[in-house]
Amino acid sequence: MEPASVMGRARPATGDSGPRPADVVGILCLVSVAAELDFEYHHAGKLEAYLKRVHAAYPSLTYLHSIGRSVEGRDLWVLVLGRFPTQHKIGIPEFKYVANMHGDETVGREILLHLIDFLVTSYRQDPVITRLLNNTRIHIMPTMNPDGFEATKVPDCFYTRGRYNKNGEDLNRNFPDAFERNNASIQPETQAVMNWIKNETFVLSANLHGGALVASYTFDNGNSATGTLEGYSRSPDDDVFIHLAKTYSFNHASMYKGTGCDTRQTFPDGITNGYSWYQLEGGMQDYNYVWGQCFEITLELSCCKYPPADQLEKFWRDNKAALIEYIKQVHLGIKGQVTDKNGNPIPSAIVEAQGRPHVCPYRTNEQGEYFLLLLPGTYVINATVPGFKSILKTVEIRDNTGNFSALKHDFIFPEVPIRSSAASCPKTPLYQELQWASAAVKPTLHAILGLMAVLLLIFQ
Predict the structure, then answer these.
(1) H/E element, 202
(2) I need a surface site. Which of 64, 148, 163, 434 has the fewest CB within 10 A?
(3) Cα 220 from Cα 300, distance rounded (Å)
């Protein structure tokens, strides 16, 4: 049974005289759009047409744009949903789902279309979905590799050439890597996503794959500085990533059972550290975390990469609640602005929780905003502006995901700082600098000491 928070519908008040004419038009619009989305595979033309129909039917709730083009010139469509779909609003976090980066892994592509349908038709009907859309800007990219999907002529449960883009490159091995130099040529699809990440303030993300049934989390790659000698590559926010992966797994119809796709491979609680499963260089989720300030996990949703279309409805039912609950996690932790005493935002200020240093320090955006995903607990938040004394604030964080708003705290610097551009975090194997300590101290201490050394290098 679906949770009431996802499936509930608001009932009219007793004595309601019935829908107004404008409401009737809206209801007819909902029905017409929903009726057009079948459980079938939508190739490029149909997918584009559907997204355009949704945007035409809900122009104030959605924004449709292409972030770039594939090698063969197909648009990389993104539909944005929310109360303010066209632009970022202060205090509203940005969330994204990306599917089909391997062109022959197709379930995610289709269930994201049904997620779009569910969100737009539930807005102002379901109070939970209404609050979610009013307080979150949700970006949905049904396909990152449209060329690979179109090239997969014969659906197969296992490997096909459609996995790759038109140039034969695996897009999930194509990003800059924090642990070793990635010599792969950056592809148009990859560059488009990197630019997209740079231009938005993404806080939380997931990329949807197929071929297994598990939620996998950062790091995918690693070295001794992140604990790989123990067969695990631990990020400074490992506890948050475990929570995120479990949120999806436990709200999925069967992922939480951890049985995987056969008896040879099991995943306790339906989750795994990426490196513990298999080492991967140039992956998108590590790139998001290190260079995008965005927590991303990888969702493997089907044992068969390209299952028959008649199974798509069940895949949607199995994932529906998990997709919604995962989006809510963008409201974990703390958020706020860093300003001067006159209320002017301070971009590029460093705001981090003590004990959780990132190899690329997490900085405020152009509006001076920061977002930190943190589990409930007590933390010391450190706000730093070069040339000024840091401001420390002890905060008690509760689980506010049900209220659709993280704890809010603003930092105000008494002096007016001179606006300067921050040192850019280089797209180089930053974690190579941390290996020097791996033979002497425990992995968690390595990360702290090594990260401090890298930060000193960045600020020189």
Answers:
(1) strand 202-209
(2) 64
(3) 14
Which tokens is 20 given?
């107004």
Query: Does the pTM of the predicted model rise above 0.85?
Result: yes
Which residues are known to be catalytic?
A: 300
Half-sphere exposure (CA, 13 Å, Cβ side) for 19?
10
Q: Exposure of 216 by Cβ count < 10 A (0-12 exposed, 13-18 middle, 19+ buried)?
A: buried
Distance (Å, whole) CA 217 – CA 209: 13
Of all helices (H) and strands (E), which one includes residue 33? helix 21-35
Measured distance CA(202)–CA(140) in Å, rounded? 12
Number of H helices, E strands in the chain: 12, 15
The secondary structure of 125-139 as a DSSP string is TSHHHHHHHHH-EEE
Residue 16, both tokens: 């309601």
Give residue 174's identity as a one-letter amino acid code: N
Question: For residue 47, which of 122, 114, 134 has the smallest C-alpha distance?
Answer: 114
The candidate with the shortest Cα–Cα distance to 226, out of 449, 455, 443, 429, is: 443
pLDDT tens, residue by residue, 26-71: 444 454 454 579 999 999 999 999 999 999 999 999 999 999 999 9
Is the distance from CB of 100 to CB of 144 less than 8 angstroms?
Answer: yes
Where helices occur in 87-227 by DSSP H, the ranges are 107-122, 127-135, 146-151, 188-199
Give the three-class secondary structure for 192. Answer: helix
10 Å Cβ neighbour count for 389?
Answer: 10
CA distance 457 to 460: 5
User: What is the phi/psi pair of residue 296, to 5°?
Assistant: -125, 140
The Cα 329–Cα 381 span in angstroms is: 20
Measured between its terminal Cα atoms, the distance across the chain in Å is 57
Evaluate the CA torsion angle 313, 319, 321, 324 in order and state its sign.
Answer: negative
Q: Does residue 290 contact residue 430 with C-beta atoms inside 8 Å?
A: yes
Identity of the residue numbered 291: W
Using CA atoms, how far apart are residues 373 and 78, in angstroms rounded to an integer?
Answer: 24
Return the structure tokens found at 420.
């300067």
Burial of 110 from C-beta contacts in 10 A (0-12 / 13-18 / 19+): buried
d(CA 173, CA 168): 12
Phi-psi region of 426 (alpha: psi -120 to 50; beta: other; left: phi over 0): beta
* Distance (Å, whole) CA 21 – CA 62: 23
206 φ/ψ angles, rounded to the nearest 5 degrees: -145, 145
What percentage of residues in the chain have a pLDDT greater than 70? 85
